[in-house]
Amino acid sequence: MASNPEFPTSSVGALSRLNERSREIFRNIVESYLAHGEPVGSRHLSRILPMPLSAASVRNVMQDLEELGLVFSPHTSAGRLPTELGLRFFVDSLLQMGDLTDDERSRIETQIAAASRDKTMDEALAEAGILLSGLSRGAGVVLTTKDNNRLKQIDFVRLEPERALAILVSEDGSVENRILPVPADLPPSSLIEASNYLNSRLRGRTLAQVRDEIETSRAAAKDELDVLTARLVSAGLAGWAGPAGAAQNLIVRGQANLLEDVTAMADVERIRLLFDDLETKHDVIDLLARAEDGEGVRIFIGSENKLFSLSGSSMIAAPFHDSQRRIVGVLGVIGPTRLNYARVVPMVDYTARVMARLFGGV
Description:
The protein is of the alpha+beta class.
């Protein structure tokens, strides 16, 4: 699990000085919040701690934790709740990771395998979002690039002197039509020649893979094609595959789960704000794209990202790769900051590994 590089280094030094008693009290405050969402008081903590401490001693420790910015009191004479900084410290330093059950692993593998056999790749990706949503009781999100589909055939149809229609047929049976500019003086035979050239190379491969091959063998391509046809191939692939991240596909499933366990008007407002966040696809894509950096699962808590600065939510996300270790997508779970991190992190990690196998990864 990747930690957050934005965690303040000054806070890390202060937190490292917490003794065992302080850590145990802090751990119980966080675990109580994750389980129930309610503040926990000193009297209750004094009864459940593994060491004998009076309520007064616990209150002193809680005051120290508050001065460090790890906990806060929602109102006078209340118990304590963890701050976002406290949650980050807990996740990075104290969280004891759980594991999936055999039934959960089997369910993930079976449902994704069935979806990949019987449905299009986009539908299989949506199934992964539904699966994560159902298992986590949060919103499942999947982000992929449009050029991940493995292609079967490309055909060109002239529409106007300077426009042509590209018909892309994927191995999963999906069809996509795209308009691309072409030179006005391009002869009709060049469209056929370009189709033949691409179709001889693309079966079972993605546009990005074909584009990379053509870019690395441009000299050979020029020998096979005349100048105008080469221009069509180059312009067409650049327009379809585009630069990294240019054509991204966002899938969100299970938003209704975020309405469960709403106990106060403040929670209702938080959920409304989160729905607004999920509708702002650009920000969701930006956040998921950050999860592509580095290996393993990334955890984003609350205002660590502008997307969740108002709604007070968290996201757990992991990338998945193809056989060349290139990232082809990111999947994850969005929910309240009191997500069951110990359970959701291994769930997201395992689902990402199962998805990677669909793309030839490991």
